[in-house]
Amino acid sequence: RPFGGHTTEFGDGPPVQRTCAAADRTGHAILHTLYGQSLKQKAEFYIEYFAIDLLMGEDGACNGVLCWKLDDGTMHVFN
Fold this sequence. Notes:
The protein is α+β, with helices and mostly antiparallel strands and about 80 residues long. The protein folds into two domains: about 1-45, no CATH class; about 45-79, no CATH class. About 20% of the residues lie in helices and about 25% in strands. The protein has one helix and three strands. The protein has one helix at about 25-40; strands spanning about 50-55, 60-70, 75-79. A three-stranded antiparallel sheet has the order 1-2-3, with no helix packed on it. Strand 2 and strand 3 form a beta hairpin.
């Protein structure tokens, strides 16, 4: 099992390919790809925020997130 090791059918089936590798830099490659795509889509970045809780509606849908801004200690709600 050089890489991976997961199988289908709860261990009774053949091995399944679940990831791709970029030498020992897989995480770095994923990070740069996600960051590049985020910039392309004009995503807003909120630096130094820590998610505290998901704000769930009565229907079970997530309506927002409660975050703590680490640099000044304030709480923020994002919908």
